[in-house]
Amino acid sequence: MVEMTVESVRINLATQQRVVILKATKQERYLFIWIAHAEAYAIAVELQGTTSPRPLTHDLLKNVIGELGAKLVSIVISDLIDEIFYARLILDVDGRHVEIDSRPSDAIALAVRAKTPIFVEESVLERAGVTLEQGEEQQQSPRAKPEPKRERDQEQDNLDAYRDFINSLDVLDEFGKD
Q: Segment Disordered: which positions (predicted)?
């Protein structure tokens, strides 16, 4: 598993779609998960450090977990099936390990509130993750056959397209605006 952090929550102004961008803590790998407005709002509110006069659903769930004597240990984006991400909440309930199925957006909203780690299964990152820059550790081994220039150029074009796409999105800073 790869530990991730929430890099940002963004909105495509043309389509009004929201995306949460997770970034690996120790490498330049990203995971983009399209989410609904309510969950984008819930994540962004917490990341901005603002509060609601009454508990939002994810605040309520965090409070219930705590009042029942459990602790959210982590969340895991565990699978990708038919372009749908799956997640699990990992709880410690009086020393007992409990896993609960969750939508990734809800799990992330809860994790940012509880300040618990976010993990993504390596198999999910292999299928849906994006590497924006190649670091030293990702270069080919000396025995590997050199990649043809055309393939490197194509890969760079693909990375440039991802960069352009991300730069076209606006950070979700102002919560009342659509």
A: 130-161
Q: What is the CATH number of the domain that holds 111?
A: 3.10.690.10
- What is the total count of domains within the chain? 1
Determine how many CB atoms are found less than 10 A away from the CB of residue 38. Answer: 15
Residue 104's domain comprises 2-134+147-171
| pTM for this model (two decimals) | 0.76
pLDDT in tens, 4-53: 999 999 988 888 899 999 999 999 999 999 999 999 999 999 999 988 88
Other residues' Cβ atoms within 10 Å of the Cβ of residue 9: 27
Contact 111, 74 (CB under 8 A): yes
pLDDT of amino acid 158: 53
pLDDT at 174 over 50: no
- 142: in domain: no
The answer to whether residue 176 sits within a structural domain is no
How far apart CA 107 and CA 35 sit, in angstroms, is 12
| Dist. CA 173–CA 162, nearest whole Å | 22
Residue 111, domain member (yes or no): yes
